[in-house]
Amino acid sequence: MKIKYLLSSAVIVLSLSAGSANAKDVKVKITPKLASVDVMHNGKKVTIMRNQNNKNKVKDAFATTSRNCPPFCINPIQLAPGVETLGELEVLDYLTKMSEGDSSILVIDSRTPDWVKRGSIPGAVNIPWTKLSIKKGADPLSIAEIVTEKFNGRELDDDNFDYSNAKTLVMFCNGMWCGQSPNNIRTLLKMGYPANKLKWYRGGMQNWENLGFTTVK
After folding, report:
1. Residue 195: helix, strand or coil by DSSP?
2. What CATH number is associated with residue 146?
3. DSSP symbol at 87
């Protein structure tokens, strides 16, 4: 198991390094050999790197430590059986593959638009958790449209889909206390979406901001 982890980590670093800037010219790197990663966002290249100002502080929106629980309760490391939990390097790897033309991957910001306006991860698309929630007013027709047109599922009838060619979805929201991406993932699992095609960036925007990574509006 340890060997498998080390090998997968090496693959991630190698795949990311290909599009990085000259590491020796950057003081605040992502890893010792990785300075930055180039991804596509809305048809334009965006370079993801960490803030180079050693005095930079996290934004106030992500500095709050104590939100009422419920609803802002801490999520477990494993959200559901078969759903892989990711860290920043894994997210960067998926973003790189997607930007290089891998259409089988979709990185999704599951937050509502008011949060997305403050900044999101470059390369991610916004599909608010409310758009997949019947309880929040989403109608079955609209949900089916998202599953077929965005996720590449194939509708069989009113309640069932064929996910054999469905995309791998990497979902995130505001952090380990945020319920928006967990809601999206649990909804899709109930719809039969394969757990191995659902990935969860638990740290979300709070960890992304804490590490000083590039964001886009």
Report:
1. helix
2. 3.40.250.10
3. -
